[in-house]
Amino acid sequence: MTALAALTEVEVDYAGRRALGPFTLALEPGEIVALVGPSGCGKSTALRLLAGLEEPTRGQVSRTPGRGETAVVFQAPTLMPWASAQANVALPLELAGVAGGEARARAASALERVGLGEAFRLKPAQLSGGMAMRVSLARALVTEPKLLLLDEPFAALDEISRRALADDVLALWQGAKPAIVFVTHNVEEAVYMAARVVVMSAGPGRIAGETPIDAPLPRPAGFRTTEAFRAAAEKVSADLDHGMAGAAANRRGAAA
Amino acid sequence: MSRALHLLAPWALVATILVVWQAGCALSHVPVFLLPAPTDIGAALAVGWPALLKAALNTLVMSLEAWVVALLVATPLAMLTALSPLIERALAPIAATLQVTPIVAIAPLFVIWAGLDHPERAITVLAAIVAFFPIFSGAVTGLASADRDLERLFDLYGATRLQRLIRLRLPSAVPFWLEGAKVAVGLAIVGAVVAEFVAGSGGSQGLAWRILESSHQLRTADMFAALLVLAILGAAVNAGVRRLEQTLLKTWRGR
Question: ipTM of this predicted complex?
């Protein structure tokens, strides 16, 4: 299979300081990859490179999805506060020139899919945090993207909402099977949702380890209590410790 | 109990000041042209209210006209600056210079331009200049205030410059623009009064003229009466526009 999108030996500098790289990641169509790492390791930068929102300082980015075939969900719901849920979801379609009536109909059905069919008229201030995140998810899905990028989408939510949304994302993924890259701080969430967990080390961000998760997607009930889950989570945690120790050594080296 | 106290506190203070004022005037026998007692002011108000009301209406009309003119000029100009950084760059020094020029200093010029028979035109323009800045800078700030991730989203979906202005920047600017408009209405009243002082002719029969006239004739109680009406006018207009702002904001964000 050819890669849907790939970062090859990319490096990103901000104000002369290396923030990311060298970093390489290839993404197969329909694959779910989790990027895990400490704060400031360049996870979000990697995501913006994949989205085409940013250019690397060095290295190559290849992307096959065209305009409108990539969608991003940010850490905050990032909704337009003045617009209804339906108008928010319809935005990507309207920007692409889809006629108003059709855009609204498709937005309504996308809201239906994330369980917010009733809330289409409400504005963001009238939604709970979890509901707003679902609207954001519906907006990402409404264009039926080939590549879905999630930047710590559940970070601001409580544990119960997080789990519900994780299951929702996997259920929605089953439909059109977009490739998903999601950034998270949460090892358990990464193992639960991804087919492959990539751990990054900090300062600058590099790959500290990769763990394939051998279990069908969406996950079977009770997956969180299985031995396979525990083993994978331990491996990811070990990679994370390793990456952080390496970063600390780098800092000491740089200071000396 | 504490709520009632909170509501009563300002009235109680005003009442105390009036009582002390009245007693002070009665005991010290200050001449009435120097400091009239509250009862003198009340009497002036009772006699002069039809003329004062008419003058207040004139001031109100000039201020509101100026406010509307300022809204109509400042808003599109702010939008132009959002469309082109070059226009913003070209406008910025002029706007800044005009803003620091005292209205009193340029008023005589406008009085001449408007024609000595039409001081109310000069007053409206001067008040509009004062009201222009909060609206303009509010709108410019607001137009640049869109959420950065929303901007990225518009990048991602390849939005055109016009789409971005209409669908993102304009709606994002609304709360800032409303705040500017609210500040501007108070400034428009101040501007109208100051400009009328400078115009200094009976051709414009606003409250400032009433104050000037009373002052020339040493009718201090009448001056106080006009000041009181001016204060009430300002407070009422401010309250009205604040109410309007809150209603519009509620509609904007849905609650």
Answer: 0.83
